[in-house]
Amino acid sequence: MSVLTLLGIVIFIALLFGLYKLRKPETSLAKQVFIALLLGVAFGFFLQLIHGGDIEQIRPTLTWTDLPGDIYVSLLRMIIMPLVLVTMIAAVVKLHEVAALGKIGGSVIGILVLTTMIAALVGILVTTVFGLSAEGMVGGEREVARAAVLETRAPVVADLTIAQTIVNFIPRNIFADLTDARSTSIIAVVIFGMLFGLAGLLLSREKPEYADRIKGGTETFQAIIMRLVKIIMSLTPYGILSLMTYVVASSNGSDILNLIGFVVASYLAIAIMFVVHALLLSLSGNNPMDFFRKIWPVLTFAFATRSSAATIPLNIRTQIEELKVPPSIASLSASFGATIGQNGCAGIYPAMLAVMAAPTVGIDPLAPGFILTLVIIIAISSFGVAGVGGGATFAALIVLPAMGLPIELVALLISIEPLIDMGRTALNVSGAMTSGKITSRIVTEGVS
């Protein structure tokens, strides 16, 4: 182990200890997460500086600094399926009307799809304003290799239909889905939880002597799971410090500079969509500032991990405890939002790529027919992404061929993909939580 590697590890341990000392009642989790974010960025730059930006020299240090982040993400993934299952069972058992569940699900999905369509329009607008185009873009060896891989994966999504996607949502083996064996396992567990809860609800009505035991048992299990989530959430600052250290220390500055126009345009589109979320919240009678202040730790984690699925436990817990969203709505919006109607990955990204690629095959990207078709295909494919997994890349693999456009552009942007994906994931999670908060307002208070 080199002296610089040892120095980096010692400093990182000192930063972890400093975060531990910050754990005081007067220091909110949001403030701790923000401090951890700044420390991670600064320490990542420090590692770049002392190692001259050589990732191979930085890697031995990252092997150890990644440890808290890897453990934290693993714990969150561990709790996803039990949390979703128990929350859905408990939520349905407490329902007075089964029809309310359909209203909740319809509202959540409707808002997710609507915001994804708006995100597509925002992506088209920003790409046009920046004058971005795929013409003249040339990839290196890594991009060419990536293009070859994408060519082999394209057939996987080319023949995907809405009917097939719906069938993929239905649980065939709940024990396999509880192990996250399929890309649609989360939705499958949600559906099983609803059906199991419905059976419990109907049994309670048919045999009242079981009602108290069923309700009490589900409430007890839910309380235990939520307490476990709270324990894991207390580790968030350490996870964020570790994850942000890796993100910054492993970034390639030259790749970012080469494609800075696309990076800036992407983050501008993401920022606009956050404003759209705020407007929708305001129109539904919610306070946007209060909303974003409360979900800040969740967005930070989504940004650092680039995983909407791993964020589900924090998402549900924050909606229930901070935003006061009913458990049934929180669980549905967090679960569906991680797989359907992702504003960043399924909305902005494929729209931007389609507009950039259109001129290469002689298509006018500003033609009304092209824009309308693109938005409709993006709305439909936002369900299809859940059927195959892979986030923004697979969304692009669905949308571009459907529009008659080449997929090589996806490979050319591989160098900056992680950087942009952080912002897209945070937007995805914001969209899911926005749908939950607005649905809560509509269902519980009757806002039209």
From TrEMBL:
<feature type="transmembrane region" description="Helical">
    <location>
        <begin position="370"/>
        <end position="388"/>
    </location>
</feature>
<dbReference type="InterPro" id="IPR036458">
    <property type="entry name" value="Na:dicarbo_symporter_sf"/>
</dbReference>
<feature type="transmembrane region" description="Helical">
    <location>
        <begin position="259"/>
        <end position="283"/>
    </location>
</feature>
<feature type="transmembrane region" description="Helical">
    <location>
        <begin position="6"/>
        <end position="22"/>
    </location>
</feature>
<keyword id="KW-1133">Transmembrane helix</keyword>
<feature type="transmembrane region" description="Helical">
    <location>
        <begin position="105"/>
        <end position="132"/>
    </location>
</feature>
<keyword id="KW-0472">Membrane</keyword>
<comment type="similarity">
    <text>Belongs to the dicarboxylate/amino acid:cation symporter (DAACS) (TC 2.A.23) family.</text>
</comment>
<feature type="transmembrane region" description="Helical">
    <location>
        <begin position="34"/>
        <end position="51"/>
    </location>
</feature>
<protein>
    <recommendedName>
        <fullName>L-cystine transporter tcyP</fullName>
    </recommendedName>
</protein>
<feature type="transmembrane region" description="Helical">
    <location>
        <begin position="394"/>
        <end position="414"/>
    </location>
</feature>
<feature type="transmembrane region" description="Helical">
    <location>
        <begin position="185"/>
        <end position="203"/>
    </location>
</feature>
<feature type="transmembrane region" description="Helical">
    <location>
        <begin position="71"/>
        <end position="93"/>
    </location>
</feature>
<dbReference type="GO" id="GO:0005886">
    <property type="term" value="C:plasma membrane"/>
</dbReference>
<keyword id="KW-0812">Transmembrane</keyword>
<dbReference type="GO" id="GO:0015293">
    <property type="term" value="F:symporter activity"/>
</dbReference>
<dbReference type="Pfam" id="PF00375">
    <property type="entry name" value="SDF"/>
</dbReference>
<dbReference type="InterPro" id="IPR001991">
    <property type="entry name" value="Na-dicarboxylate_symporter"/>
</dbReference>
<feature type="transmembrane region" description="Helical">
    <location>
        <begin position="224"/>
        <end position="247"/>
    </location>
</feature>
<dbReference type="GO" id="GO:0015184">
    <property type="term" value="F:L-cystine transmembrane transporter activity"/>
</dbReference>
<keyword id="KW-0813">Transport</keyword>
